[in-house]
Amino acid sequence: MSFVRGLGKYARLWIVPLGLVLVAFGAQKLARSCFDSLVHFRAPQFTVKPGGTAEPVSRVVLVVIDALRIDAFNNMRYLSSLKESGATFILKTGQLSITVPAAAVIATGAWPDVTGATTNWFEGSVRHDNLFSLAKDSGLTTVLAGGTGLFAGAATKTFVRKWKDAYITFDEETLTKTLEFLSEEPEFSYVHFTDTDEAGHEFGGASPEYQKYADHIDGLIERLHKSLREDTVLMVTSDHGQIDRGGHGGWEAVVTHVPLLLCGSMVKPGSYGMAEQTDIAPTVAALLGLPVPPYSQGRILADALNLGEQEGRLLELQVEHKEVFTRAYLEAIGADFERVRGETAPAPQEDAGAYWDRVLARGKAEKTAGARVRRIPLFLIVLVVPFLAFWYFKKRFRLSVGLPLGLSLLYFAVFYGIFFASGKTISFSSINYQDWLRKFLNETMLYAALSAIIVAIGLAFLARRRTRYETAQASVILAAFIAFLIIVQVDIFLLYNGPLLTRYIPNMFLAFKYYLDLASLVAIGVVSVILPLISMGTHRVIAGSSTRR
Predict the structure, then answer these.
(1) Which domains does the chain have, with CATH numbers?
(2) Each residue of 30-49: pLDDT tens digit?
(3) Contacts by 110-115 with C-beta closer than 8 Å and gap 24+?
């Protein structure tokens, strides 16, 4: 009978681990649902019609060099020579800093939370008016050569890369096709060179090989530039950068800050500092005499252009557009446009466009804050229920929790030590190839499980003077504390952003950490089932060693 009671006592140890397994299952489902909500992002639905136009002032050739870093740009011989007579900017990209979302931003002037193109898994076409569709509606001819085919259906002439093509030779083909298309004198050409991205992924963004391919593209641009008509503005930029060891998509400045160079008779030479990737589309539209792209959130880079009599008209159209866009967007997310506008006073000497940007930001912030307030009760429940359970069991069974609590904090030091030592960072840029995402998360779960096991072994050593059952019990408390501390971090993210990504793209550093936390929670839930066995086994080995001594 005593054996049965003893067996029952040990069996009760697994009640909490089995509960943590259920938590792990829920964390896995939540992580998958949240990631799906990013891939299939539901952007606010609203319509903005194209506004008025000004007279065209030039043709435009826009060259996008995939994954070109600012330092590599500065080392490119021909482009560096063009900077002397051109205008340069540093552009801030959106997040995720990857190709398809950036292509949508460049062509529409809208950030990913408006276009809905948030990842490279985006399917279909961007429904928003863009440079190609506006040009088509205005009777202009356009070219799309190389890179992504996101807007291939809207261009007059198209040459799009098949991704099985060898990157070593493809940019040569892109240039050949571009020169062929330019012989028909299109008004707008979008040329996308891709070798630098492939080289960066394979060799790293700080490698000599990467610079070699950047220099090769530099030569292609020289040939392209020398073939252009005098009334053409050449714009050279990048969709995103590349980290030193290869990869992009994250928050690092080296991937979210990219160069922009403008050259041509309409350009005022100089270095103009920071701008945004959304500024490209309205600037191109102004040069071509197109309406401001209806969903654009950027501004015309008028300071760098000789627009003559057209400048006043273009800036007037830009302000009108920003007001229309701000109203449509805020109404789409349920904000009170009239109230927000009335409560936002213009600042002294503030640009009218900047004023409407502030109105938009305030309306979004108010809606976000309201959603957070509504999530507070659930946030508190998630925190309070486990805390009350801990308090009850501690009193009911007179549990000793000091050692497990201290070691649960040590777990995070061990986990992040292993995580960073493996070369990973809390950034999507750590995933060098997008099909490595599953591998990355599996490795994260392995690190979490390994860290929990290491700490559980340490617990057994420190608790060697206790009974084997007490050691096993302490390991269960350890797993529960680790899980709770991870849940606290997940809960904070959920308070600020909600369980799914809708309407807004959150800070992607925090979003990536949220995915890591959920992956770790899955691992802790699963490994908690064997932690009591590991701690008891370690305790037995230590006790046996002490007996022999």
Answers:
(1) 2-41+368-548 (no CATH), 59-310 (3.40.720.10)
(2) 999 999 999 889 899 999 99
(3) 110/278, 110/293, 110/295, 110/296, 110/297, 111/278, 111/297, 111/505, 112/41, 112/505, 113/41, 113/43, 113/44, 113/503, 113/504, 113/505, 114/43, 114/44, 114/295, 114/297, 114/329, 115/43, 115/295
